[in-house]
Design goal:
This protein is mainly α. Helices cover about 75% and strands about 0% of the residues. The chain is built from seven helices and no strands. Helix 6 runs antiparallel to helix 7. Bound molecules: heme C. The site of heme C has 21 residues, from helix 3, helix 6 and helix 7.
């Protein structure tokens, strides 16, 4: 009997951990669509970078990595209201994760500019991990469904 109670408690605590995920789905259609566009844009860029990385074509990587760095949704395109909306509806950790992701893109650009193979591979991997970390935490309504 005790075991049953314990597992019920666990279930409850898991579902309350889901609360922050409502953040993204609570965004207005317009703001959410901007986020989607940013995501598609960075995915396309990451695929291109992978392709150039395995060819050792660093010159082609730099502008794409810089572009990902600058595609930071919070930096541009947003109206003041949308900016406030993001701050209001998304948890602080989400914004920090996004910001650290874009910072890594800058480091990748830097690595490719100086043709530093190991740095390019390392930052590419770190960036991929950020996609997964954020999706498995804040995009569970889309990916990593249990
Ligand atoms: C800080 C959080 C965060 C990071 C980092 C992140 N994503 Fe996302 N991504 C999201 C969220 C949240 C959604 C779901 C958006 C929604 O449901 O409207 C999403 C959705 C997407 C989508 C689907 C877009 C659509 O609506 O068609 C793609 C593709 C995507 N992400 C790719 C990536 C890739 C590739 C990376 C890493 C290189 C990445 N994301 C990093 C939060 C993030």
């Amino acid at each position: 009997m005790k075991k049953v109670v314990l597992s019920t408690l666990l279930l409850v605590s898991v579902s309350s951990a889901d609360v922050p995920h409502k953040g993204v789905t609570a965004l207005s259609a317009q703001t959410r669509s901007l986020l989607s566009q940013e995501m598609q844009h960075i995915e396309k860029g990451m695929k291109q970078i992978f392709s150039y990385m395995i060819r050792g074509d660093y010159e082609s990587i730099t502008p794409i990595a810089n572009d990902i760095r600058d595609s930071f949704i919070f930096k541009k395109k947003l109206t003041k209201e949308q900016r406030l909306e993001l701050k209001d509806k998304l948890p602080k950790e989400f914004i920090e994760l996004d910001s650290s992701f874009h910072k890594l893109a800058g480091e990748l650009a830097n690595g490719s500019e100086f043709e530093e193979k190991d740095k390019v591979i390392k930052t590419f991997n770190q960036m991929s991990r950020k996609c997964i970390k954020c999706h498995s935490t804040y995009a569970k309504h889309r990916f990593f469904k249990e």
